[in-house]
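Incident log, entry 3
Record: Aminoacetone oxidase family FAD-binding enzyme (396 residues)
Problem: checksum mismatch between cached and fresh output.
Input:
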Amino acid sequence: MAVSTSQYDVIIIGAGAAGLMCAATAGYRGRKVLVLDHANKPGKKILMSGGGRCNFTNLNSTPANFLSDNPHYCISALKRYTPQDFVELVDRHGVEYEEKAPGQLFCKDSAKDILNVLLTECEWAGAEIRMNTSVSGVQASGSGYTVKTSAGTLKCQSLVVATGGLSIPTMGATGFGYELAKQFGLTVLPTRAGLVPFTLHPELKQQLAPLAGVSCPVDASCHKQHFRESMLVTHRGLSGPAMLQVSSYWQPGDELHINLLPAQAIQDDLFTLRKQKPQSTMAQYLNQHLPKRFAQAFNELQGWSRPLQEYRNQDIEQIADTLGNWTIKPAGTEGYRTAEVTLGGLDTRQLSSKTMAVLEQPNLFFIGEVVDVTGHLGGHNFQWAWASGVAAGNEA
Ligand code: FDA
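Fresh output:
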């Protein structure tokens, strides 16, 4: 029987990082692949990532860089498609990149370079990409699926869901993947915004207002997860890598602990300083170790105006505690509007860790951010998108 044009081996919903990687992989296996996306352009999040330069992988990525209710699930795919594998792909396309922070690889020029690698690979692999196409329904039919779209009804043997998470709805993010999973009787774990700035209660927000725009290296922690990176005070609250990282571990009502001088033995420093230079002030001490504006405003906020000799041991201990364990209770986060990722999602216990296929429905696959695997900041999320995309592309 002749195969109609609306019959595909593989249909992938979502032309983002994971979907495009999967499409090229399956296409190279000789599969007839169609990628559908309701947005007007593919890979929009790739283009906006890494400040427009896409932190496309992290050479030091390990399973410990991922959050999941089923932490072992990601190990297999990450092991079989490594950061080095993606670097080799990028090298083959002549993309120039640089290591901006240990392990974090960014394009030297533009994130467009990474999107072009993926689109070129899809073209070479013969995978078709159809944008501006919305999917209104999916049904199992025989051993495959029928996909109703704004461009007509299509059929496929394997269906791959790569619709991402809920973050940045203005970029085309939807809960479609979760709804589809539920339709097929699968469990979706509660979702929440991750890698997202914190908002503050009005009083603290007002107190910190003079610090807006200032960043300093800190050790931020929540639930014993420590991140030693920089913190940025903004007009809305607290951001910067340290805050984004710790936000993925934060739940409403939790406190954050911030060591403002992680490189110092603060209490010892202050006792020594009081002995050697009794007239010196906290402002002088802070000026040595923090950005000037931050030192000044934080000192004013705390009202530490007297010479050190006037502080008792107990006072010094308290000051050291305030600096080393500044404890704040955020009002919330900025939510999906600005979050880089969505935590939670499809419960991975229902998927094969080798192929990303649903255990009970071997022709249905979920990859990328829609599943409950979320990386730390620093290129880990794209590495998961590549690795899970390849895993499914080798099977679908
Ligand atoms: P992704 O969101 O990329 O793609 C999903 C696709 O599905 C989209 O094209 C969407 O239009 C489509 N879609 C959704 N619903 C649909 C529907 N109903 N019908 C049809 N199509 C539908 N990570 C990292 O490692 N390094 C970095 O530098 C950054 N930087 C960064 C910056 C910002 C601002 C954000 C928001 C995110 C990042 N990330 C990141 C995270 C990274 O972008 C993210 O983890 C991956 O893009 C996830 O890839 P997916 O393919 O799973 O989803």
